[in-house]
Write the structure tokens for this entry.
Amino acid sequence: MPTTASYSIILFDGMCYACSFVVRLILLLDRKKHFRFAPLQSDIGTKLSSSYAITTPTATILFISQGNCYTKSTAILEIFKILGGIWLLLLIFRYIPLRVRDKLYDWIAKNRYKLFGKRTTCSIPPPRYQDRFLK
């Protein structure tokens, strides 16, 4: 496994079906293994989110890269940037004002369990991806 400086960390709501689906999609797309993952509800997720003074961590995605912590829509756009390829087209959303992007993000986050469902336990990564999840 590379050193922490060589990969970025995605902290996600492990109870959210949509969030877990997005993580699995990123795992498939991330052929260069840029990303490591942890549920926000895990010990490491709690420690990392509190170290960046995130007060309501399960209401957002956290993306930690090169010492910076991104949240909400900016986190998603930063992930697209690293994925590269066709995903770079989605960076056009940077031209939408941050307040508007995050308002939409907040609405989806607030309603994610109603829209997509909620797990009773945190998702467990497939065995072939175990090394990509922080413990």
